[in-house]
Amino acid sequence: MFYREAGQFKTSYEADMAVFPIRQDRIGLAIILVAAVALPPFLDSFVVGTVLVPFLVFSLAATGLNLLTGYTGLLSLGTGAFMGVGAYACYKLTTIFPGVNILVWILASGFFSAAIGVVFGLPSLRIKGFYLAVATLAAQFFLEWCFVRIPWLFNYNLSGAIEAPSRSVFGIPIVGASATPLARYYAILAIVVALTWIASNIVHGRVGRAWMAVRDMDIAAELMGIRLLRAKLLAFAVSSFYCGVAGAAMMFLWYGGGEAKDAFSINLSFTILFMIIIGGLGSLLGAFLGAALLHLVPIFLKFGLPELGVPIGGATAEHLTHILVGALIVFFLIVEPHGLARLWATTKQKLRAWPFPY
Amino acid sequence: MSAAAPRPGETLLSVDGISLAFGGVKALTDVSFDVRKGEIRAIIGPNGAGKSSMLNCINGFYQPQQGRITYRGVERRQMRPHEAAEQGIARTFQNIALFRGMSTLDNIMTGRLLRMKVPFFWQVWRHGPAMREEIEHRRFVEGIIEFLEIEHIRKTPVGRLPYGLQKRVELGRALAMEPELLLLDEPMAGMNLEEKEDMCRFILDVVRQYGTTIALIEHDMGVVMDLSDRVVVLDYGRKIADGTPAEVKADRRVIDAYLGVGH
Prior knowledge:
The complex is a heterodimer.
Chain A: H1 13-16, H2 23-38, H3 45-71, H4 79-96, H5 102-121, H6 129-149, E1 162-163, E2 167-169, E3 172-175, H7 181-203, H8 206-216, H9 218-223, H10 228-255, E4 257-258, H11 260-263, H12 266-279, H13 284-307, H14 314-335, H15 339-353
Helix pairs in contact in A: 3-7, 3-10, 3-12, 3-13, 4-5, 4-6, 4-10, 5-10, 7-10, 8-10, 12-13, 13-14, 13-15
Chain B: E1 11-22, E2 25-36, E3 40-44, H1 51-58, E4 66-71, E5 74-76, H2 81-86, E6 89-92, H3 104-110, H4 120-123, H5 129-147, H6 163-175, E7 181-185, H7 193-210, E8 213-217, H8 221-227, E9 230-235, E10 238-243, H9 245-250, H10 252-259
Parallel strand pairs in B: 3-8, 3-9, 6-7, 7-8
Antiparallel strand pairs in B: 1-2, 1-4, 4-5, 9-10
Helix pairs in contact in B: 3-6
């Protein structure tokens, strides 16, 4: 009833091409953004640190993978490794040049990841589908090997771990032991909002259309004058950039250092892939919904249920998580291959027509 | 590199002694014909005669083993499909090759990709030059949408459209490239009479309004004979006749190819 576009006339192509052409959508987005900025100070810092920060990190990585897999149709299992490249690049950069703003280095580390992504994207011109997935799997294993065997990457630390040094932005520590979860949250929020806006611009323009054309019918795409290798490599570069930034943010804004080689394993690649499958391939909203679901369900089972008075042990909750996530993936593959984002779109369509069926 | 665009009536494309084989299977053997600027040229023949292979050679999907293709006075042997697109050759497919996940509008907008030059740096912000370019091409695409009378399905994902409309969107996508030479591979296959008549009208209008040269493959003889200026007939990969519809219709070898020969 409140979700109607009647009376909202568009008088220019610019208005018609807006990302959110319906006024109610724009209002909704504004409310979410305001809430994301205004609410966290009132939340428990444990919630901010273990729920919101990881959610944003996962969303960013899922957005990156979605640009590659959802929009360009190239399946990748190297996400974890590309995130690792970002984390190690950021670590090296900030220890070599400690004076530079850490946010600059988190973003700059994306470029290192992008370069590595392009190298491992080269086979994508010749191989597709599962075979490409296996090629990116090679990237995962090779890079993981590098993370362990090249001590220069972790500054010859005996434990092989990354130590997050203390870094401040405008006098507020956001990395290191003294950084509060709230400060880290605002740092990652700023990064995620900016990069999501850019991703939305890219996919709604010329480049996004070229990517989707390659995904849907590469022969016809070539015929429209698209150079396949260039389009695919650009997708790998942009996607890996996002993953690299997410990896750097994960290590410095969430973990605060640690055994990186375990963090950026193949499990992380699969987790991100499941996020975009459940959330919705080829949808930016889907990356966020998928990240929310896959990250929040385990937390809810582990901490939420005991709070509600349901006696459940930590181990049981973990097993339950595996069962639920597995069931969810099978459910979505069968019922709604386009994921949560499509469900949301269908709901909106129903709302528009309500109370009539169509 | 390309010579001045030919005037109406001059030769736009000439195919000379093309032979194409896949292993031991000969798809085309020594085929030669030409397409003049501004005409509708039909390629007909029984199933498996090599018609689609011929189009694939022209726009660079297949590389013929022998022969020359001269386009706009420039001879060439090897070409990638995107190079053909850059030189103004567009085509539609026998089995529709639309981008199924995208809307009608986005599908037709992909036809403008070659003409959109604003660098990636501006694309990232979707403001300034990138937005101006987007609007300029949107205006052109809206012209095509109006021309093809598909305004009502502008925002519909093409996967949901009925077959006849999909064919029309595919034509629109090819037209958005503003091609000099348009290759249509069975534009009327699987259509009912009304849809065929619509499509014929669009094809004639394209030639008249945009000055496009068309080479088309079609099985409906009534349509071919009415539409085209000249017809080339292939059978088992060889050219068996070439001429006006009336000449071809009277050709003994064409009749034999279609109806069989009494032994």
